[in-house]
Amino acid sequence: MSESPNTRCGFVAVVGATNAGKSTLVNQLVGAKVTITSRKVQTTRRRILGIQVVDDAQVIFMDTPGLFTPKTAFEKTMVKAAWAAMYDTDIILFLWDVRMDITKADKALRRMEGLGKPVYLILNKIDLVPRETLLALAAAFNAKFAFEKTYMISALFNQGVSDLLADLASLMPASPWHFPEDQLSDLPQRLLAAEITREHLFDRLHQELPYSLAVETESWEAFDNGDLRIAQVVHVEKQAQKIIVVGKSGARLKAIGQQARVELSELFGCKVHLFLHVRVTPRWREDRTYLADLCLEDPKDLK
Ligand SMILES: Nc1nc2c(ncn2[C@@H]2O[C@H](COP(=O)(O)OP(=O)(O)OP(=O)(O)O)[C@@H](O)[C@H]2O)c(=O)[nH]1
Ligand SMILES: [Mg+2]
User: What is the pLDDT of residue 286?
Assistant: First the structure.
């Protein structure tokens, strides 16, 4: 941590509808994979910090779950985490997929008005629509809400991201840094490893199944030769789901495990031995104690 009085540091919450590209943007801003992404909705389940240093400024990005109307206890903790990040931040980036109907933003914009924080409109996925559409969209949004500034970017293709980062870094208030210079995220390695496996499960499974599963790292062992042995449980809610995840003669789980293992080996820079098993944990999404065990609910909120 820096003690220098010349340093600056602050928080930037990245919020918006689910699938807008928030996690893709946070990874680009940090320059490393700190949070998982997918083409499916509701991928991010908790607040994850991604940290970047620009000269004397440490910028702490908060990736958040998407804003949607929650039903289950689990969905409520997700949306609550997104709003909590907005209360805790210096700047809010409101990310918008330019293909979406603008009226869908109304509820969130109304609620953000009461926060009294600077909100930046980030129109994302500009690679997918013509420029005229973007200008009209920017005008319509700015007629609805007093955005501090509007940016047009493509998080996936890294367009406009470096300008955004430079602008945000210049706005950070004078403060000691909150994290060591080389720290990229607040996610402990065992949680990151579980997220990587979940990303591959999301990629391979369809319809409702991804939402019925959670991944937990049960054991983590580093050997003298540098290899890592990681054992993880994939929780599902029903026996029928377990059968699908495992696949014929275990083929699907094996393929997913192989992909995750390759990525984990690259990430941790060593040989990884990954062991996955699937367990039926009925109603884990409704059990708040269980959500706390999975680090998806803050234990102090349980009282
Ligand atoms: N074409 C295009 N696709 C993008 C862009 N940014 C993100 N995506 C894609 O949009 C999908 C969702 O991206 P995520 O980063 O997971 O979105 P998110 O907002 O974090 O979603 P949740 O965590 O589910 O709320 C992925 O398939 C991304 O590859 C972009 O600029 N252009
Ligand atoms: Mg996300």
Answer: 82
Q: Alpha-carbon distance 179 to 14, whole Å?
A: 19
The ranges of the chain with pLDDT < 50 are 2
Neighbours of 52 (CB within 10 A): 20
Question: Of all protein residues, whose CA lies closest to atom 10 belonging to ligand 1?
Answer: 21
User: What is the full DSSP assignment across 187-219?
Assistant: S-HHHHHHHHHHHHHHHH--TTGGGG-EEEEEE
Residue 212: Cβ within 10 Å count: 18
3-state helix, strand, coil in the chain (%, to 5): 40, 25, 35
Question: For ligand 1, atom 7, which residue shows the shortest CA distance?
Answer: 21
Q: CB under 6 Å to ligand 1: residues?
A: 18-24, 37-39, 41-44, 65-66, 124-125, 127-128, 154-156
Closest Cα partner for 118 from 10, 215, 233?
Answer: 10
* Overall pTM surpassing 0.85 (yes/no): yes
* Burial of residue 97, with CB atoms counted within 10 A of its CB: 0-12 exposed, 13-18 middle, 19 or more buried: middle
Pocket test for ligand 1, best of 14, 19, 69, 159 (most atoms within 8 A of CB): 19
Q: Which ligand sits nearest to residue 157's alpha carbon?
A: 1
Write down the pLDDT at residue 152: 98
Pairing of strands 48-54, 57-63: antiparallel
Atom number in ligand 1 closest to CA 44: 23
Cβ–Cβ < 8 Å for 209, 256: no
Domains and CATH numbers, the chain: 8-170 (3.40.50.300), 189-301 (3.30.300.20)
Give the nearest ligand 1 atom to 153 CA. Answer: 31
Atom of ligand 1 nearest to the CA of 38: 16
What the block records as the tokens of 60 is 């702490």
